[in-house]
Amino acid sequence: MTENKTPTRLLFVRHGQDLDNSRGLINGRRDTPLSEVGRTQAVRVAEQLRPEGINCVYSSPLQRATQTASIIAERLGVAEIDVESDLIERDYGVLTGRPVADIPLHASNIFVLNDFRYVIDSPGVEDYTRLWTRAGDALRRIQHRHAGQRVLVVAHNEVIKMMRANFYGKSWEDELRLSPVNNCEVIALA
After folding, report:
1. What span, in angstroms and rounded, lies between the C-alpha atoms of 72 and 76?
2. What CATH number does the domain containing 157 carry?
3. Cα dihedral across residues 75, 76, 78, 84: positive or negative
């Protein structure tokens, strides 16, 4: 048997806007559904992805991601979504469910870029080294399973960023210097 030399094409999409996003709350692992805006974003991004010829779709287990993935997969004719537990959102500990404006009150170390506050340290928040490692593990599993295919991964801002950092051999610190991923923004890696 010959090995497939065609590289895997990876496309990442951050889930559509959910109810917490619309209220300015920190999601973390809260399992909130998409808003109407989020459902519309998912339909729109599905049309954008149509020319890509997606072979399979992976999703975080949280419903904002699985709903986004389902809308996209249905419109692209992909029958099944693979839910990958390591694609789950970063645990935000004491910040979960709080307004974004409360980050400075509860975080002892923050990095701010383009008005986005990256929480470096706060009680119960998953540290970036662990997030970078689990995102990289998920990336390698997906690449191994789907060599030479076109794969869509629907996940969360910081998970996508850490997968991209792993793909390019960068540190989590380097990745934080890049802009956040917007709701239903497509990030393509080849």
Report:
1. 6
2. 3.40.50.1240
3. negative
User: Please, are residues 82 and 58 in contact by the beta-carbon 8 Å criterion?
Assistant: yes
Q: Which residue among 15, 106, 146, 156 is the active-site one?
A: 15
- Which residue type is seen at 81? I
Decide: pTM greater than 0.85. yes
The number of distinct structural domains making up the chain is 1
**What is the span of the domain harbouring residue 67?**
15-92+126-189
Selected catalytic residue, list 84, 89, 158, 175: 89
The tens digit of pLDDT for each residue in 24-66 reads 999 999 999 999 999 999 999 999 999 999 999 999 999 999 9
Residue 79 placed within a domain: yes
**144 in active site:** no
**How many CA atoms does the CB half-sphere of 138 hold within 13 Å?**
31
